[in-house]
Amino acid sequence: MSDPIPSPHESQPAQPAIELTISSIISQNRRTATPFAVTKHTAEAARNWDKFYKNHADKFFKDRHWTGREFGSELASGKAKGEDDRAEETALVSADVGGQSVLLEVGCGVGNMLYPLLEDNVALKVHACDFSSRAVDMVRSHPRFDDDRVNAFVYDLTTTDPPLSSFLTKKDWPEVTTISLIFVLSAIPPQLHAQVLRNLADLLPNGGHILFRDYAYGDLSQVRYHTKKDAAWAEPSLLSDLAPWYRRGDNTFNYFFTQAQLEALAAEVGLQGEVETLRRTAVNRKSEVNMQRRFVQAKWFVPPRTQS
Length: 308
Description:
Elements: E1 4-5, H1 16-26, H2 35-43, H3 45-56, H4 87-96, E2 102-106, H5 114-120, E3 125-130, H6 133-141, E4 150-154, E5 178-182, H7 193-201, E6 209-215, H8 220-227, E7 245-247, E8 253-255, H9 259-269, E9 275-284, E10 290-301
Parallel strand pairs: 2-3, 2-5, 3-4, 5-6
Antiparallel strand pairs: 1-9, 6-10, 7-8, 9-10
């Protein structure tokens, strides 16, 4: 398939006819996986991500130099490229952590956002963790790895033992005031979303914030699960008929969020801030088919906590 041509970068308003078509497609082909398969894939999550990085190394995601257009004046960046290389994320975080800041990047992968951030912000220090030990090894073996600026470690966000805070005491770095959670929560089983977000919020001081971006309900990648039927002998990709939760072909997870769901989730764990849905259309050069992309993003703040 030819590469898509991104539409203009501004988010598009919802178009009822398009949204109705997307909903209609998602309502079809809803055969779900067995509970045994769900449990099996959940238990093997770490190994599946290690396999992912073994197969793709650092070639799957391009370096992320791209988020400025999404958060207005906060995100000025001179390196914005096309949407497909996800450089918006780097500009989003880069503008937020200027100066003598320390960032916690959860789900750092092999450093596709980390190293452009360090290049753009010479004073920045980053705690970077990932579920995959193979990914963290690649971060550490990167030619630009600097132990004075990067604290890279393996961590499972779905656990609390040991606490994540125990990994953030490196040297004399200032406390973390910003956490990036970008295309990470969708890879975690939905019953753990609130727990993960609460644990991250608890790490932050009053006024600290979480920069969030992930897949939205109705994104092209979700629609594809319903337009390509699973083989009759294979476990279906849809893992629950009650939630938009799927298994990719490499056995990693994929969840699609609605704006209302994320607003409720943030309220449940005590975070404040607006959530927005981004809608875009890309056109395939060869087939001239419109492809609808949907993302959700937020900048959540920790409000003042009452003193006990």
